[in-house]
């Protein structure tokens, strides 16, 4: 059975045409992309052109395109929203960027691509799937021994409920109402429990937060709300 929520799929499919509108529902993803990109690049080998990279839950290609522009030459983006993949393909074509996009789940992709990728990104996706554990296990299967994966999600606590849902969705309107479900947020300890269970070891973590005075996002030590985790697949 595919690890996908019908409601989540319909939600993102309905607004797929707006992926590259930086004033739309996807504004926040555009705003946080530079710090995500720089954090990822700071943890992977410098021989970017030789790396095989997979972006899971790529959406319209915001992160994928920035990785290619940074020097990645072999990148695949996968997503289960057909409309998003169509937008991603067209935008890459317009931008003269070579990216392989597919409509497929990570679990299905892992069946024929076991141990293939050097780097995998899975950003802002874990909180939208029925089984985060299944997704993390697929990431582990897809990675080469020694390969690195990045996850980005939202912590589950009262602070994240207040700021990531009440303030971000209902007060400031930074993201559409109903974008997130608090019970589906994940604690860092939960991600690492799933990760260690399939041979992934912790490398690093970082939070990031919105600065109202500058209108920008910055890295921070606190993992209370938005955070990223980097893991490495154990060597054979």
TrEMBL record:
Coiled coil: none annotated. The keyword Methyltransferase applies. Pfam families: Methyltransf_23. GO terms for biological process: methylation. It catalyses: a 3-demethylubiquinol + S-adenosyl-L-methionine = a ubiquinol + S-adenosyl-L-homocysteine + H(+); a 3-(all-trans-polyprenyl)benzene-1,2-diol + S-adenosyl-L-methionine = a 2-methoxy-6-(all-trans-polyprenyl)phenol + S-adenosyl-L-homocysteine + H(+). HAMAP family: UbiG. Belongs to the methyltransferase superfamily. UbiG/COQ3 family. This is Ubiquinone biosynthesis O-methyltransferase. The lineage of its organism: Bacteria, Pseudomonadati, Pseudomonadota, Betaproteobacteria, Burkholderiales.
């Amino acid at each position: 059975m595919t690890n996908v929520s019908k409601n989540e799929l319909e939600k993102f499919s309905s607004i797929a045409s707006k992926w590259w509108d930086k004033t739309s529902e996807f504004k926040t993803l555009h705003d946080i992309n530079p710090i995500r990109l720089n954090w990822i690049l700071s943890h992977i080998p410098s021989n970017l052109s030789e790396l095989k990279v997979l972006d899971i839950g790529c959406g319209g290609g915001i992160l994928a395109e920035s990785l290619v522009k940074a020097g990645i030459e072999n990148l695949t983006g996968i997503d289960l929203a057909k409309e998003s993949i169509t937008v991603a393909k067209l935008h890459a074509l317009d931008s003269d960027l070579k990216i392989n996009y597919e409509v497929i789940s990570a679990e299905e992709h892992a069946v024929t691509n076991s141990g293939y990728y050097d780097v995998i990104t899975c950003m802002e996706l874990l909180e939208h799937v029925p089984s985060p554990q299944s997704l993390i296990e697929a990431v582990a299967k897809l990675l080469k021994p020694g390969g690195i994966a990045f996850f980005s999600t939202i912590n589950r606590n009262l602070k994240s409920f207040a700021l990531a849902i009440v303030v971000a969705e209902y007060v400031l309107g930074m993201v559409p109402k109903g974008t997130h479900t608090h019970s589906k947020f994940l604690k860092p300890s939960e991600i690492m429990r799933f990760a260690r269970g399939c041979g992934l070891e912790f490398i690093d973590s970082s939070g990031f937060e919105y600065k109202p005075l500058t209108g920008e996002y910055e890295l921070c030590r606190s993992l209370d709300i938005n955070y990223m985790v980097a893991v490495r697949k154990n060597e054979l």
